Amino acid sequence: MHTDAPVRKAGGRLSREDQRRLGDILQRVYDEVVRQGVPDRFKDLLNELNGGPDSDQAGQKPAAQKAGPAGDEEREADRLVEAKSPESSQHKGSN
Amino acid sequence: MTMRPSVRDAMLAAVPSLRAFAISLCGNVDRADDLVQETLLRAMANIDSFQPGTNMSAWLFTILRNLFRSEYRKRRREVEDADGSYAESLKSHPEQQSRVEFEEFRVALAKLPPDQREALILVGASGFSYEEAAAICECAVGTIKSRVNRARTRLSDLLSIDGADDFGPDHATRAILSAGGRG
User: Would you call A36 and B19 a contact, using CB atoms and an 8 Å cutoff?
Assistant: First the structure.
């Protein structure tokens, strides 16, 4: 009956048991979101990005959802996409 | 940037976990989803730098984390208000139909320093190894381990301090702490 809640040890390490308990809650909180699956907006986004017959077209498509199909806006949207890649290829050089 | 279906599928498969990570970082579902969207766009724009056969999920997490951190620097005050609006935003989002104990846990999680929180989540929930988490966070493996340990200790402190203040009503936290991990 008595709780065996984790005892606070200032600066100390938790017992394995306590770690497991915390880990279990953390996993459940996280999985609650994971179980929501892939919202449509991301499916649509990836399909649009992937759908273009040639690569230039593909770059413009995601923009179409925020702006109309007017020519100027498409070009602007294209710049938007490009502007998102300043860090570009450096992401994975770190390991 | 035509994408092979396998690449797109790998991205799609990573989305639920990316969202969970993003929500835990920024504490707000709408912002988290924007962050995920920006991550996917950036990943697509740089798909050539992804090496097939390596871990797509880890690559996306790295991008998302970098995006978050550059945004975080701009919004530092907002996020550091751990006892106030940030914690509140975690509690109040309707999409997360959470039980009371989850809420308490989230609030405690929100109080962790960002470095500790992300380390704990990557290792403790997203299923990355310490080595992968270190690569994502661009730090040493030992650093990740110590952040995870400190995060756990701090969480445990926060949760049991809450309970110790008042033996009466707030033993829900203890109850879940006791109920969990009965492996």
Answer: yes
Q: Is B39 exposed, middle or buried (0-12, 13-18, 19+ CB in 10 A)?
A: buried
Residue B47 CA, distance from chain mean position? 24
Distance from CA of A82 to the nearest CA of B (A): 7
Enter the DSSP assignment of B96. -
- C-alpha torsion angle, residues A30, A36, A40, A45 (rounded to 10): 20
Question: What is the per-residue pLDDT across B58-112, written as a single tens digit (0 to 9) for each?
Answer: 999 999 999 998 886 666 555 555 444 555 555 444 444 445 667 788 889 989 9
CA B120, B123, B127, B133 torsion: positive or negative?
positive
CB-based contact (8 Å) between B28 and chain A?
no
Of A22, A38, A84, the CB nearest to B42: A84
Exposure of A31 by Cβ count < 10 A (0-12 exposed, 13-18 middle, 19+ buried)?
A: middle
ipTM of the complex: 0.71
Show the tokens assigned to A58: 């593909």
Is the CB of B109 inside 8 Å of chain A's CB atoms? yes
Count of C-beta atoms within a 10 Å radius of residue A36: 15
